[in-house]
Design brief:
Length: 163
Amino acid sequence: MKTLLIVFHSLTGGTRQMVEAAVAGALTEPAVRVRLLPAGDATGDDVLAADGYIFATPENLASMAGRMKDFFDRTYYPALERINGRPYAMLICAGSDGENAARQIARIATGWRLRAVADPLIVCTRAQTPEAILAPKAIARDDLARCEELGAALAAGMAAGIF
Ligand SMILES: Cc1cc2nc3c(=O)[nH]c(=O)nc-3n(C[C@H](O)[C@H](O)[C@H](O)COP(=O)(O)O)c2cc1C
């Protein structure tokens, strides 16, 4: 039984919905166990114990969310050289951009020698005003479908030993 670890943070619920869709997709693969952890709870041991990863975060201030950065700060060296070659994907929820958060996570994943199984999946909520940015988010159905497909594809590849 392989383990897919999903580490996430979400302030206004958008990333959480994306993650829930990815979990639903991954659960279609019975040979893969899915562990969903908030970034603040995930430890180096959780990273070491998994066989593949999804990292999911909002883009905040042109960066991954601070709690997500804290997760990587705490786990980067404990996991370095011990997870080489494992597969990963990322989900980014952004107002209008998301590229820099994706770049930051890709750089960390390169240091970990992880293997990207898909391009970063970025969903833009188009929130522009302070009120809209702070409001609860509703992710569109087709975007959730893309997240579900990504979760299913990663889990299927892990189960089949392709990744
Ligand atoms: C403090 C703060 C900073 C933000 N900075 C950015 C940004 O740099 N680029 C961007 O595209 N969106 C930015 N946003 C918008 C969020 O990425 C967007 O609202 C997203 O839906 C949040 O995901 P969540 O619902 O999972 O928290 C920012 C939001 C907040 C609260």
